[in-house]
Design goal:
Distance between the termini: 14 Å
CATH architecture of the largest domain: 3-Layer(aba) Sandwich
Mean pLDDT: 94
Low-confidence stretches: none
Order of helices and strands: HHEEEHEHEEHEEHE
Number of strands: 9
CATH topology of the largest domain: Aminopeptidase
Helix content: 25-40%
Strand order of the largest sheet: 1-2-4-3-5
Number of helices: 6
CATH class of the largest domain: Alpha Beta
Shape: elongated
Radius of gyration: 24 Å
Bound molecules: zinc ion
Strand content: 15-25%
Length: 295
């Protein structure tokens, strides 16, 4: 059982560190960087952590240029428990820090530092870590870190995310599959010999429309979204190549797998109707998050 004295001390440290970190989060917010290009955030956060007493800071870790690993340990032989906090810091293209990863960045720092300060003051044995986790806006940064063994020796891993959500400490995030879809047709002059062409834009439009119709049978929680990333060069050329990003979300990874089969059928519909070849590449897939209710 942790004494209220320790908890009060941690609260007081959080308040002190928060004041220092306002400028840090604001500088990250003012310099938005997209997935795996978060060099400013990486350097800002690691140089802040390097100034903290007792912390060992490793930069560019787990095969990722913009990931980091900070460790504070006190008599681990007496208590092998490792608790990690996580800082995200990437933004979205075009709109910047929309869901507040600048705040996640400093929330991780504050949590890790305040716990380490309590460990020092009350001589508590154990290890606390802070991971810098890049590429969370569709990059699957933590998946790459898990695969590289970052969390192998971690017992408990904690993170918070800003959310307009009641009972926010226990929220569930959806499973997600991000796919690049491409159609390969044949260009032709759209006025002189359109019959020579195979229209890849049409294939994309048919796929889009098939999904739009399919949504009538979706269950609550099923989501399919898309953008056209490549839809032709000029109206007087039959589009020979087209591409789009298609995202599938659902309450569970099993449901996302079912929905992804529906997506593939919609792509096939576009392919068959136009005569285009198609390619579907799953770029990232996230399982649904299952929070630990006891913690
Ligand atoms: Zn977010």
């Amino acid at each position: 059982m942790i004494s209220t004295e320790i908890i009060d001390y941690i609260r007081q440290e959080i308040a002190n560190i928060n004041k220092e970190l306002f400028d840090v989060q604001h500088s990250i917010w003012s310099n938005p960087e997209t997935r795996f290009k978060e060099h400013f955030a990486h350097d800002t956060l690691t140089s802040y952590m390097e100034k903290q007493e007792g912390w060992k800071v490793s930069k560019h870790t787990f095969g990722l240029e913009t990931s980091f690993d900070c460790t504070f340990t006190n008599e681990p032989e007496k208590n092998p428990t490792v608790i990690s906090f996580n800082s995200e810091y990437d933004a979205l293209p075009g709109i910047g820090h929309s869901c507040g990863h600048n705040l996640i960045a400093i929330a991780g720092v504050v949590a890790a530092l305040s716990v380490s300060k309590a460990m020092q003051k009350f001589n508590l044995p154990g290890t606390v870590k802070l991971f810098g986790t890049p590429g969370e806006e569709g990059g699957g940064g933590k998946i790459k870190m898990v695969e590289a063994g970052a969390y192998d020796k971690v017992d408990v891993s904690l993170m918070c995310h800003p959310m307009n959500h009641i009972n926010g400490a226990y929220f569930k995030s959806y499973a997600n599959s991000i796919n690049k879809v491409e159609f390969f047709g044949k260009t032709a002059h759209a006025a002189v010999a359109p019959w020579e062409g195979v229209n890849a834009l049409d294939a994309l439009v048919i796929t889009y429309n098939a999904i739009s119709v399919l949504r009538q049978q979706f269950r609550p929680g099923d989501i399919m979204q898309c953008v056209f990333s490549d839809a032709g060069e000029s109206a007087n050329i039959i589009t020979g190549y087209s591409a789009g990003e298609f995202r599938v979300r659902g309450p569970t990874i099993q449901r996302v797998k079912e929905l992804r089969k529906c997506l593939i059928n919609c792509v096939k519909a576009g392919s068959i109707a136009t005569g285009c070849e198609y390619k579907i590449e799953e770029q990232t897939a996230y399982a649904d998050m299952i929070s630990n209710e006891i913690i």
